[in-house]
From TrEMBL:
Name of the molecule in the record: Transcriptional regulator, LysR family
Top-level taxonomy: Bacteria, Bacillati, Actinomycetota, Actinomycetes, Kitasatosporales
Keyword check for Transcription: yes
Transmembrane segments annotated in the record for this chain: none
One Pfam family from the record: LysR_substrate
Domain HTH lysR-type: 4-61
Single GO molecular function: DNA binding
Length: 291
């Protein structure tokens, strides 16, 4: 029998993440003996060993690592299905649009204005988030659509519509000598003595190697740039959060960034489809030659 209960997955994931039966039992709010028995039954049903147990503790086997990854995704999918089902049962609810704080501000403003001007459009609630969080919010059902950026964001499993392609700029402390330049190259901004580039987390949560500070919020980044501790390269439209202590200089050879509107590929929501059409209409209006 291949069926797994969500309770079994929750139990296993707690043990796999804690690597300790006592801590996992406390996290789950149950006693340790029934948790141990549940994991043994799960291993027997699957016919594989998920955990290595010895005096030193608990370790995941290769099969256990697979179930941790796939099981976590399955639980996320169940939670997302519950959220989307409840929201679908409320026809008056707003659509939730996730967007990185400070990014694509002008485009987002125009899209919200277009929705407000259309009496037949579903209302839109904006959920501002940090870098790279839009994908998680779409997958777990907290957001219906998102403004995301190719090639830097994780677009796997989403349908997308391209909205805007642009170059990038370096955000520098206003007093730095490079801030007086009209244009820069990536080589110039990657090797600035005393002013290393900030490091954002990768999609897996790890940080790239380098001397720059590890950052995960826009506010951290803004203050570190103003203090002369770091610089960064971002899409030109993301300058909405720029401080007076910052200067933006175009970086000629930085790869272009394309803003897209993204939604789960399985979505059959008519309000989502209408919002995507409205966003595409704004793109087409912008690209239309002047008469």
């Amino acid at each position: 029998m291949d069926d797994l209960e969500t309770r079994e997955l929750r139990y296993f994931i707690a043990v796999a993440e804690e690597l300790h039966f006592g801590r996992a039992a406390e996290r789950l709010g149950i006693a340790q003996p029934p948790l141990s028995r549940a994991i043994r039954r799960l291993e027997q049903r699957l016919g594989v060993r998920l955990l290595d147990r010895d005096r030193r503790g608990v370790a995941l086997t290769g099969a256990g690592r697979v179930l941790l990854r796939e099981g976590a995704a399955a639980l996320d999918g169940v939670a997302a299905a519950v959220r989307r089902t409840r929201r679908a049962g409320d026809p008056g609810r707003p659509l939730v649009l996730a967007s990185k704080a400070g990014a694509s501000h002008a485009l987002l403003r125009r899209l919200l204005d277009a929705v407000a001007a259309d009496p037949g459009a579903a209302p839109v609630e904006v959920l501002l988030c940090e870098v790279g969080e839009q994908a998680r919010l779409l997958r777990d059902g907290h957001a219906d659509v998102a403004l995301m950026h190719r090639p830097v964001d994780d677009l796997a499993g989403f349908d997308t519509e391209d909205l805007h392609t642009e170059g990038q700029v370096a955000i520098l402390p206003a007093g730095h000598p490079l801030a007086a330049r009209e244009r820069l190259t990536l080589a110039e901004v990657r090797d600035v003595p005393g002013l290393p580039m900030a490091r954002w987390p990768r999609l897996d949560g790890t940080y790239p190697d380098g001397p720059g500070p590890e950052v995960h919020t826009q506010s951290q980044l803004a203050q570190l740039v103003a203090l002369g501790r770091t610089l960064l390269v971002i899409p030109a439209s993301s300058r909405a959060w720029q401080w007076p202590e910052h200067v933006a200089v175009p970086v000629d050879d930085a790869p272009d960034i394309t803003t897209v509107i993204a939604w789960p590929a399985a979505s059959r929501s008519l309000p989502v489809a209408a919002l995507v059409r409205a966003a595409a209409a704004l793109r087409d209006e912008t690209s239309r030659p002047a008469p």
